[in-house]
Amino acid sequence: MSKFEVLSIIISILAVGISTISLVRTRKLAKEQLELERITAELSRLQIESIAEEKTNKTKPKFNVSLTKMGKSYNFYISNTGQGSAYNVNFELIDCEDSPLFNSELIDMFPYQEMRPGSRIKLLASLHFNSPSKYQSKLSWEDENGNKNEEIFWTSL
Predict the structure, then answer these.
(1) Residue 79, number of CB atoms within 10 A of its CB
(2) Neighbour tally for 155: CB within 10 Å
(3) How many CB atoms lie within 10 A of CB 76?
(4) Selecting from 3.10.490, 2.60.40, 3.30.9, 2.30.30, what CATH number does the domain 63-156 have?
């Protein structure tokens, strides 16, 4: 074998070695890139879900029930602090044998036709010395799609 042939074989072997190393690195980079694309797709899906949930929360009512003393009288306040309206709102005290609410006021007010964002309902409460300090109440309503919802609240002085 001549020097030229040996040199050609060495150069060929080096070229095969360099090509093999390049191929291994390219496969490794391609694998990492596929993993990054999968993670990016998952993050995009989660972001879309978050945006959709945020959008639906903008149309949902959010309620708060509190018992407040103003002067010598006590009142239950039902507030809609959410960004959506509630329809056919009902309010009742649960497991309360000696209800401080006036039945006539409950019958006149409920079901409350529409509770818009930022609105509140005031109910006079007749508390006495033996009244419990905590009340459990249930608020039920319909959303704009006609779906029925309810939530339980614990209210204390």
Answers:
(1) 18
(2) 18
(3) 21
(4) 2.60.40
Which residue ranges in the chain fall short of pLDDT 50?
A: none
What residues contact residue 89 under an 8 Å CB cut-off, 6+ apart? 78, 110, 111, 112, 115, 121, 139, 140, 141
Q: What's the token pair of residue 3?
A: 């020097």
Q: Can you give the C-alpha Rg of the chain in angstroms?
A: 35
**Spans of all domains in the chain:** 1-57, 63-156
This prediction's pTM: 0.66
Count of other CB atoms within 10 angstroms of residue 91: 22
Q: Report residue 32: phi and psi, to 5°.
A: -65, -40
CA 33 from chain center: how many Å?
33
What is the full DSSP assignment across 39-88?
HHHHHHHHHHHHHHHHHHHTTS--EEEEEEEETTEEEEEEEE-SSS-EEE
Cα end-to-end distance, the chain, whole Å: 104
